[in-house]
Amino acid sequence: MRAVEVSPGTVLGPLRKTITQQKITRYAGASGDHNPLHLDQDFAAATQFGGTIAHGMLLLAYLSEMLTAAFGSRWLETGRLKVRFRGPARPGDTIIVKGLVKAINDPTTVTASVECRNQVGDILINGEAEVTNSQGLP
Predict the structure, then answer these.
(1) Does this model's pTM top 0.70?
(2) Which whole number is the average pLDDT over 75-90?
């Protein structure tokens, strides 16, 4: 995948994904995380969440997909994330993943704010991404 040229103020994304119970179940199988909070409707209904929720790492996978679209192999080879989980994603939610280039700290390092929100604007994840490349950035 080819990276895009960036400068401070460049918007990354947005990427939209709809969360379904089927996607959550498939992610549980791929990750080995079979916590009943993600898979068992009756169990999850009795928790503070009131129903099943998506794995936080599934949302981070969507964040990484957006960053890969923006930075190509540089993201996969040198990317770093520092994020906080703020809220759950539920089946039926539409997740909007986006970022904003904040700075190019030297000729080879890009810093961007990143976030995942649901369809009503609640922040589910926010933080910072950093990408480096010894050959310089476009």
Answers:
(1) yes
(2) 96
